[in-house]
Structures are given as structure tokens and as C-alpha cells.
Write a structure and sequence with these properties.
Layout (H helix, E strand, L loop, with lengths): L1 E7 L5 H14 L4 E7 L10 H13 L7 E11 L2 H13 L4 E6 L7 H6 L2 E4 L7 H19 L8
Length: 157
């Protein structure tokens, strides 16, 4: 199973990117993982919030196939402990999926079409973080999930 993190915009902060890269490298030992970034929209000053969500939603939906299991990283999603998240990942493996895509929305969230396409939503926190930080937090939690599943000493219970 491939796990993909899909997001809008690039990471400008080299420190955050370097930290994220550490976990991407560690994840290679456990599973196929990739991050795909959709470039920021141009000329957003002429768009209202809903128009921007709509355009971003079209770009996101173009990156998803019908067989993908889609998880939105959304503040209104279900909150899981690290162990709970590892169990969530294990269930996806057990179901025989080819690809699970976790999606970080744009600055205003997701369009209705993206919400309708999602299979589920997970919240990393009720707090709001920059998209760059969410990439780091998610990648670290995914790494942690695999160490939990392998009974490795990274996560302390």
C-alpha cells in the first residue's frame, strides 16, 4: 500500500523541510510514502474564499483516483491518539487498499466536492497550524505509527 500526503503550496521554511525530510527518510524502511504538493493558486486577490476553495478542490480531485482511500486532515475530523492512528493505518493495510491519500487543504479548507469525496477525516489538533508544520507533524506521526506497529522503542506507552 502506498501512503501519500497531498497538499497545497510549497514549504518555504528550510528548517521545517529538513525536519520533514528526516521522517520521510525514516519511513522508507517501513512503507512506500510520498508527498505531492500542488502549487499555490495564482491571482487569488480576484477570488473570494469559496472560489479559491473551488479551484483548489478541482486540483485536489484531479490527483485522486476512484480506488484511493481519501483522508482529509481537517480540524473537524476525528481525533486519534498515536496508538489509535497506528491502528487506523493497520486497518487500511488489512483492507487491501492500494493507496491511501491524506490531504491538507488550502488556507480556507476544502470545497464541498472534496468533502463529498473523502472517505473519512482526521484532526491532528483543534488548533490551527501552518500547512508547512502540518506536513512535519503528520510525517512524524506516520513514522510513529509504524514504530508502534513494529513494537519498536520510539513511542513510549
Amino acid at each position: 500500500m502506498t501512503i501519500k500526503l497531498l497538499g497545497i503550496g510549497k514549504t518555504d521554511d528550510k528548517t521545517l523541510q529538513n525536519l520533514t525530510d528526516v521522517y520521510i527518510k525514516r519511513l522508507q524502511f517501513y512503507n512506500k510514502f510520498e508527498i505531492e504538493l500542488i502549487p499555490d493558486l495564482k491571482k487569488v486577490k480576484n477570488l473570494d474564499e469559496n472560489q479559491q476553495k473551488q479551484k483548489e478542490g478541482e486540483l485536489i480531485l484531479n490527483k485522486i483516483s476512484t480506488s484511493d482511500f481519501v483522508v482529509l486532515l481537517d480540524e473537524n475530523g476525528k481525533q486519534l491518539s498515536s496508538v489509535g492512528f497506528s491502528e487506523f493505518i493497520q486497518k487500511r493495510f488489512n483492507s487491501g487498499l492500494k493507496q491511501v491519500i491524506f490531504i491538507i487543504g488550502g488556507p480556507y479548507g476544502f470545497s464541498e466536492e472534496v468533502y463529498n469525496r473523502a472517505d473519512t477525516m482526521i484532526s491532528l489538533s483543534k488548533m490551527t497550524f501552518s500547512h508547512q508544520m502540518v506536513r512535519l507533524f503528520f510525517t512524524e506521526q506516520l513514522y510513529r505509527a509504524f514504530t508502534i506497529l513494529k513494537n519498536e522503542p520510539y513511542h513510549h506507552r
